[in-house]
Specification:
about 210 residues; alpha/beta; Rossmann fold; six-stranded parallel beta sheet; 4 helices; globular
């Protein structure tokens, strides 16, 4: 499955902000394009590319590696099936001794574990090359959240990796679709705005080069 040309970033010459890799979930390409991809570009991040979860992780790793070799920061953000893929890509990069500055997984679990390409995959163990990881899940989202609570918790393989598990309770009314919603503002669940969008903005801002 090929992604639309508009999903591929075209940063201006000399742009040295972070390379942001987005990976969408099953049949969720247009949804992520309309929301997270559009939102990040609106914030001024020029090098944001949206990838399909069907894409081999070797491609994701290659694009991250090229940015790291150019001295730039990198962020991998995966939604649903894309969450599985970004962890796989991070593991591939670990074998190449390439660091990932920020890894974000959203709703990477639940029924998604039974999708054939993810059988046996473990999105909860974060490889040692990841510096910071934010793992989001919503209680009641059977598509992306495991029934056993502790199964939703990401853990680091290395002591110096910072991992945060961020759960939306049932009364926050965050479902599988709303967990990455950005527009219109009045329809964004307040918890998503505060815990995800505002937090992600701060995390990415810290990856911008100093003036």
């Amino acid at each position: 499955m090929r992604s639309p040309a508009t999903w591929r970033a075209t940063p201006s010459a000399g742009y040295n902000g972070p390379r942001i890799v987005l990976v969408h979930g099953l049949a969720a390409g247009r949804h992520m394009e309309r929301h997270l991809l559009a939102w990040l570009r609106e914030l001024g991040y020029e090098d944001v590319t949206l990838y399909s979860n069907y894409l081999p992780t070797v491609v994701l790793a290659r694009d991250v590696r090229s940015a790291v070799e150019a001295g730039r920061a990198t962020a991998l953000i995966g939604y649903s099936q894309g969450g599985f893929q970004v962890v796989k890509a991070a593991r591939r990069l670990a074998r190449q001794d390439i660091a990932v500055d920020l890894l974000v997984t959203l709703a990477a679990g639940g029924a998604g574990r039974f999708y054939f390409p993810q059988l046996g995959a473990d999105p909860r163990h974060i490889p040692p090359n990841v510096r910071r990881c934010l793992n989001y899940y919503a209680e009641g989202d059977w598509l992306g959240t495991d029934v056993i609570s502790r199964a939703n918790l990401a853990v680091a393989d290395a002591r110096d990796t910072h991992v945060e598990n961020i759960a939306y309770p049932r009364d926050a009314r965050v479902d599988h679709v709303g967990i990455v919603r950005c527009y219109p503002p009045e329809l964004v669940p307040p918890a998503v705005r505060v815990l995800f969008l505002e937090r992600l903005q701060r995390e990415l801002e810290s990856l911008r080069p100093s003036p």
